[in-house]
Amino acid sequence: MVTSGNARFEVLSPALIRMEYAGDTRFVDAATFNAIGRDSFSRTDFTSQTSNGWLTIRTSALTLRYKVGSGPYTASNVSVELRNGAQQVTAHPLFPGTAECTIGALCEAEKAGLSGVSVATDHTGFTGTGFAAGFEDTGDSLSYRTTAATTGTYLFRARYANALGGDGQSVTRTLSVSVDGGAPSALTLPVTGSWDTWALANTNLILPAGDHTVTVAKAASDSGHVNLDSLAVTSADAPYPGPGQQAQPCPYGTVCEAEKANLTGGASQQSDHNDFSGDGFVAGLTQAARRARPCT
Hints:
CATH architecture of the largest domain: Sandwich
Distance between the termini: 42 Å
Shape: globular
CATH topology of the largest domain: Jelly Rolls
Number of helices: 0
Number of domains: 3
């Protein structure tokens, strides 16, 4: 067993490693669906070491690498190399999967990869289908994948509510925002007056060109106890995107749900008829300039 912060790896055989990520470090030792009776497996010899920010686990059949402190597993922070016949293969396990958030678009907090944070709807004024509630325990977090076209300083923004918390206080709160597990930036969240009143907070992020994981978490030094409705990563001078500007990637050759497109004018998501796929369908395309614009 190898533990690295909130990540844990159990070497079950030379070609099988059980991976677990727990934002609250409360790991689960329950049965694994595809590794029945793993407690009775013979001991597997392996080595592990941490160097230059990477944990490396080696068995006789594979090498696993994980970027220490980089959050849930993504294509950029974990890899497994093994030999398939004469071919060397590199795989990138993506569990738990991290949602995508396009730069410049509004991204709902409840759709992010959540760890220790719950989705709630018990207050008004939120967009989407709810909000991410709590951030009460150290390690509680949400994560999104994003891609920067160019290297630069971007603005991370969050729509939040902060009122009288479960700890009996109504004070300015803080969370931490990090990129790829790097040094966090403080996100300061003043009191909004009530849990039904939402405001915006921001902090700067430096993003090199390429793919990244942006994580909002309650660090040990943070007060937490806030709700997040949505977030966005934008250029410094861009306005906060509205709900109609949400975007989800639609790769070429795949089926993309119409209700996940950018809906403007009177176009809206509905579910009052049968046999639709996804969460619903788009209705209201009755006048010019009302549209469901495909996502890129």
